[in-house]
């Protein structure tokens, strides 16, 4: 199994009581609570953690994009990824991902990603997302156009990377007389494309069709297993057998010497993430037209947002793994075999977790967990698919 250190870069100094009074950490939570001096320190603290992940042996580091929220300070992940291309010497660098429908010129993303692929000399992974519902409130984009803007922007970016320019492009949402981006990607024909999602059936079917790596975001492990099975089923309909390398699980892991200590230490910070930073009303998470009815029912059934959850709930449902090294190894192996993935996108910092505890957690994972999963593939019936 491969391990990526996935960072959300939360503004961990946020006033949690103010978030409660506002009802959400997204869009309507006033930025008067953002202290630029503290924010500047956090950016450097988090970049230092990503560099530590590289030195500790993680296979990759992950960034992402969110807008107008204390949940994550990465409205534009490119500058952070650019800094890491110089200081992360070995690991891959992934952006999971840029929200294509939110931009009016997808070619800027084609150019930005090609630059990162050159700067990293081919260690870049290109993530594409539609953005969650709250981004459409933040950016003033019609959520009903999300899927078709995503599809058209994706197709244009791939063409820009793979067809010699200049050429003209005329589509429904985008029109350019000249498509001729400099630089071209370092990797041929283009960087690997990963597609994260909360479980949209149309997104899963499309990712399987394109043979892109599909990453399931915050969900109970039983839901993750169903989504990954949907991907495998779609692949089978298309005439191929999906590899575990095409499936990535976005999780949170915290390790301490004993189960009791791990739960005690992680509890306030993971519950802050789930009940404060992630909190948003349903109409903000799923605005009208954003997803089809089937996907809306599935996402709401996962019940990740919308009601308070204790750490015990999150552990019991397999949303997070918290415990001693032995407990974490057992659970992670059980979940890998159940769901059939071969990449763990692991948040080692979460919510309000401070720097010293994050570094201790990263070191414990590197020393106690990673070595036991090197070369490990899903066991049982998944083994045949892996080979």
Structural features, described:
- The chain has 387 residues and is of the alpha/beta class.
- 47% of the residues lie in helices and 15% in strands.
- It contains 15 helices and eleven strands.
- The strands form two sheets. An eight-stranded parallel β-barrel has the order 1-2-3-4-7-8-9-11, surrounded by seven helices.
- Helix 4 links the parallel strand 3 and strand 4.
- Helix 4 crosses helix 6, helix 7 crosses helix 8 and helix 13 crosses helix 14.
- The two termini are 14 Å apart.
Parts with pLDDT < 50 across at least 5 consecutive residues: 383-387
Shape: globular
Category by helix and strand content = alpha/beta
The largest pleated sheet is described as: 8 strands, parallel, barrel
**Total E-strand runs:** 11
Beta-strand content bin: 15-25%
> Gap between N and C termini, in Å?
14 Å
Radius of gyration: 20 Å
Relative helix content: 40-55%
Compute the number of helices.
Answer: 15
Query: Numbering strands along the chain, what is their spatial order in the largest sheet?
Result: 1-2-3-4-7-8-9-11
Mean pLDDT across residues: 94
Order of helices and strands: EHHEHEHEHHEEEHEHEHHHHEHEHH
Output the keywords:
387 residues, 8-stranded parallel barrel, two-stranded antiparallel ribbon, 15 helices, 11 strands, globular, disordered C terminus
Lay out the secondary structure:
Blueprint: E1 2-6, H1 16-22, H2 36-56, E2 60-63, H3 78-87, E3 92-99, H4 107-119, E4 124-129, H5 133-139, H6 146-162, E5 167-170, E6 175-179, E7 193-197, H7 201-210, E8 213-216, H8 221-237, E9 247-255, H9 259-277, H10 282-285, H11 293-302, H12 311-316, E10 320-323, H13 325-339, E11 343-347, H14 355-373, H15 382-386
Helix pairs in contact: 2-14, 3-4, 4-6, 7-8, 13-14
